[in-house]
Write a structure and sequence with these properties.
A hairpin with a 6-residue loop joins β4 (58-62) and β5 (69-74). Strands 10, 11, 12, 13, 14 and 18 form a 6-stranded mixed β-sheet that branches. α3 crosses α6 (532-543) and α5 packs across α6. This protein starts with a helix and ends in a 5-residue tail after the last helix. It has helices spanning 2-10, 99-102, 465-471, 490-496, 503-513, 532-543, and strands at residues 27-36, 39-44, 50-54, 58-62, 69-74, 90-95, 104-109, 116-124, 129-139, 153-155, 161-165, 204-210, 216-217, 235-238, 243-248, 255-259, 275-281, 285-286, 292-293, 297-298, 300-303, 308-312, 339-342, 346-352, 371-376, 382-387, 393-399, 408-413, 419-423, 434-441. It folds into 2 domains: 36-352, Neuraminidase (6 Propeller), CATH 2.120.10; 455-543, Cytochrome c-like domain (Cytochrome Bc1 Complex, Chain D, domain 2, Orthogonal Bundle), CATH 1.10.760.10. By secondary structure, the protein is mainly beta. It is built from 6 helices and 30 strands.
Amino acid sequence: MRLFLALLTLLPSFALGETRVPADEHFRVDTVAEGFVDAMEIAVTPKGYVFVIERTGALKIVNPTSGEVKLIETLPVELREKEFARECGLLGITLDPQFKKNSWLYLYYSPKGEALHRLARYEFDGKKIHSPKTLLEVPQDPENGTCHEGGSLTFGPDGCLYLSTGDNTCPFKSNGSAPIDEGPERKWFDAQRSAANTNDLRGKILRIKPTADGSYTIPEGNLFPKGTAKTRPEIYVMGCRNPYRISVDQKSNYLYWGKVGPDAGKDSSRGPRGYDEINQARQAGNFGWPYFSGDNKPYADYDFVTKKVGEKFDPTKPINSSVNNTGLTELPPAQPAFWHYPRASACAGPVFHADRFPSGGSGLPNELDGCLIVYDWTSTWIRVIKLDEKGDIEWNEPWLAKFRFVHPGDMEMGPKGELYILEYGSAWYDGKDGKLKRVTYSETPQAIEVPASDPRMAGLPADHPGTALISGTTCLACHSTTQKSIGPTYRDVAKKYAKDPKAIESLAEKIIKGGVGVWGEQPMPPHPQHNIEETQQMIEAILKVPAK
């Protein structure tokens, strides 16, 4: 009997009757189309065609059968220039719930020459978009290295349109902690003016009800009733840093989003290390940024002028006393994250419901019914979170780990229950290798084609332990071997330090502590999660990259 029980403990859970996620061999990941530039967001039509937007302004449509890509329109958008407006452009797209009848689609973009983002509705005639109607505009501060613009769009089953907006704040002067600098002429470094401001649309998820004439009404249940002094009635969720991708459960109407967290690699007197969050809002609320992170871990009220660390903020009664605040001083209580983990780039995908799609096809399997699909833009993993009847987490497991994805940036279900995944591409800016992929299911397992080595790592010594370490870090979000991204290429680093006998020690220390100035004004955040031995191994591998 003891032997039998011991053997049972060694069996996987599904062998005991609990079926969770089918093995990766039961899924097929096909590239539908490729060659996209800074691919941002997708929208799938009822007939299965896929709209793809590029940050540089292009709106394209993909035939999922042939893979043919057609350019619909190129919007003149404001783009990064001298590190200003670094995350602006064509940011979001979604289709009207009645798209099959009215052919309306919604775009969120940064108009050329204007310091704002615009949400507009267009009509699609099968070839072009026309008849734009502006619903709302979100003012933006483009100076001094501000970023975090959000821009994700989606509809809920109640016909409400949701729009995510980032805190539009420069995070690089806060040492990875809360950007709450209230000094003179320092508003760009204070997220209290945006995410924690009840009278500002930035750092929020907005919820509106579009009307036929191209305007909108305010639905019941938003955070602040219409007419409340010093508030904006469009706000559904406040206290967001950069809610890069959002989704709404088409049954429960619960809102999900991934919050990209700050850079701090460890706790300090000023507050917690950086955490990414997957959040759930069953109703309107304040989710804490820049006063709290993760499960309401508080930051301190830090004075950037005197360098004095003050009291920790109280999640039950957050107070915004910033000189840059134009809204209420006392904020709604902060809500903790649904699930959080050390900083990377969290994104929320759709919630899969099997009964919304045809049975017996190649759509996702019943085992994933009721699962929220989440993923990480930087670390590139995908997970499924099983939700119980109340919407609480039942289990959370990795998915499709044997497949390689390069900066997955958006996901949406197709009409047959298939899942479309949009890859941003390997370079941080102006990359040209974005791909649209489709995930389908097969009851019969099949061999998984071994993917080519990651192009961002081409040239690194394959058998060096430092190469394996690099592949498992967030380094590839900012660097590649030969293609310039937001940071220098590994080839350029190897060339610069080829004759420096102290390079391994000095560069390893810089990686752990962070730095700025050697390769431009873009700072490299600290990485204290790596010990000195691991970091030196990574540097050794980088310095072995050949000059050509």
